[in-house]
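Question (not urgent): is this output format expected?
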Amino acid sequence: MMSKIKQTIQLGTVQETLLIPLWARAMETSRPDAIIRDPLSAQILEQIDYDFSKLAQAQSTQVGVCLRGVMFDEWVKDFLRQNPSGAVIEVGAGLNTRFERVDNGRANWIEVDLPDAIKLRQQFFGESDHRKILSGSLLDSEWMEQVRTQYSGPFLIVIEAVLMYLTEVEVKQAFALLSKYFAGSLVAFDSLAPMSLKSQDKHDSMRHFSARFQWAIQNVKEIQRWDPSYKVIQVKTFWESPAQHRRRLAPWWIRFLYACPPFRNAYRLALIRLT
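Got this back:
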């Protein structure tokens, strides 16, 4: 049962952005044509003492975050169909409810985030025999060693809305650590093209936050040059989602623009294997 006392937010600059996807899913849930239905996020939103009204006009972000969540969910469901007792690691778990959305009852879930985000997460989510909540970052090998000791895999590592806040040096370091501890695993992540960094001050949601995107990559397949063990399996954009969902992303003239390269690839989701 949710508490009647609202939780005060004490989050770092980047960690505060975890409230954006929570708000996006909560708003989407009440729509008759909802992309994603997440009543738990709506309940959690009501328990947080925060001014979400500043996001009221962030329509593109609200729709985009829900599309992103569904697309990542599909990769997780595909993984669990092939590996029912596998392990899903969510890095930057924030207040995500993916476990509640797609858990199959057999998989192991490991949810990782920075200490302040984990402290908030623990107000709403608990651990179980198949679900662990760990404090750590992508640049921290301690939790990776712990997970490798306790779980045999196979692993799917989901890194949603995290890498763009790191520098390229940090992103390369993160992939190197993941490759060291989780060789053979799948990694799902999202990334921006360089053009997206230039317009973030006008972004409908990010303009309300102090955090800024730092890492961008023109072509996701470029990471294969970083290390021959990185193999890109699939790349998705929003423009492959159902037409009725795309229509909600932006006015028709912007959709027309973004239907063409290079705008289509301004934001992508990628699935890679660490061979």
